[in-house]
Amino acid sequence: MSKSIYLKISIAVNILLVIVITIFFFQKEVLRLINKRIAPQDVEIVMFGNSITAGGNWNELLDRQDVLIKGFPTYTSSHLVLLIDNHVIKYRPHICFVMIGINDIQVGISSQKTKSNYITILEKMKENNIIPVVQSTLYKVNHPESKILVDSLNTFLNNYCIQNNINFLNLNNTLSNSAGLKPEYSVDGIHLNQKAYLAWAIEVRKVLEIIDGSQN
Known about the structure:
By secondary structure, the chain is of the alpha/beta class. It has two domains: 1-36; 40-214, SGNH hydrolase (Rossmann fold). The protein has nine helices and seven strands; from the N terminus they run αβααβαβααβαβαββα. The strands form two sheets. A five-stranded parallel beta sheet has the order 2-1-3-4-5, with helices on both faces.
């Protein structure tokens, strides 16, 4: 391979790296500004997860002013266990929607560890009188290997939620088909576009209505 080709590849990789870093820090700044507008005592809902959660402007999507967005790009369930006290518990929200798992699968965290972390997260919420809502881990677009692992995790989560009287929101019923995440809902095979967030928000609203109804 000639030096010119090596140079072109190097330049392309560096450009891609700059784009990824720029998007990461832009997303963090947007979240910081959104969350800054919400006083801690006014937090009713926390959206807790990774970059997929972070990608949604949840106050706008749910037409509210009391939603705190705590999405952390690249983070796994092990990270959320460490973050839950300072990023969820201290705000004393009424409800916390949580989605995590796809990054665990991508970096090779064992399914047993992910399940154990999930249990720790959910038990911590319940101990602090926060209503947890588990959202299914989403598939990737046309990725059968990870789909098998996602199915296994979601089956465990659904059963755990049934056994412990926790709401489980299966978003794959809305956003996916038999092959995985629908391409029309994704920007890169894993992250979501605005159309997907609008569909997701409809399902979140339904869960909120159920919770509100059960408490009236």
